[in-house]
Amino acid sequence: MVSKLFKVLLIEDDASLFTKIKDRLSQWSYEVYGIEDFSEVMKEFAGIHPDFG
């Protein structure tokens, strides 16, 4: 098993597109976090400390 390389904060309001992107990034060993409540983006960003957002 490959360890996760980077944390990614994925912000996408289309559930289908979010799932496709998340699945692909996960296949490439990224640890993916998503946000549904856009008013909480900065709070989540600070709590997760993603390498990409």
- Average pLDDT across residues? 85
Q: What proportion of the residues form beta strands (DSSP E)?
A: 15-25%
Order of helices and strands: EHEH
Global Rg: 11 Å
Number of helices: 2
Unreliable segments of 5+ consecutive residues: none
Share of helix among residues? 25-40%
Kindly state the number of beta strands. 2
Count of discrete domains? 1
Instruction: Based on Cα principal axes, name the global outline.
Output: flat
Spatial gap, N to C terminus: 25 Å
Main pleated-sheet profile: 2 strands, parallel
Strand order of the largest sheet: 1-2
Alpha-beta classification: alpha+beta
Give the topology:
Elements: E1 6-10, H1 15-27, E2 30-34, H2 41-48
Parallel strand pairs: 1-2
Gist of the model:
By secondary structure, this protein is an alpha+beta fold. The chain has helices spanning 15-27, 41-48, and strands at residues 6-10, 30-34. The protein has one domain.
Task: Give a written overview of the molecule.
- The chain is of the alpha+beta class and 53 residues long.
- It has one domain.
- The protein has 2 helices and 2 strands; from the N terminus they run βαβα.
- The protein has a two-stranded parallel sheet.
- Helix 1 (15-27) links the parallel strand 1 (6-10) and strand 2.
- The protein starts with 5 loop residues before the first strand and ends in a 5-residue tail after the last helix.
What characteristics describe this protein?
53 residues; two-stranded parallel ribbon; alpha+beta
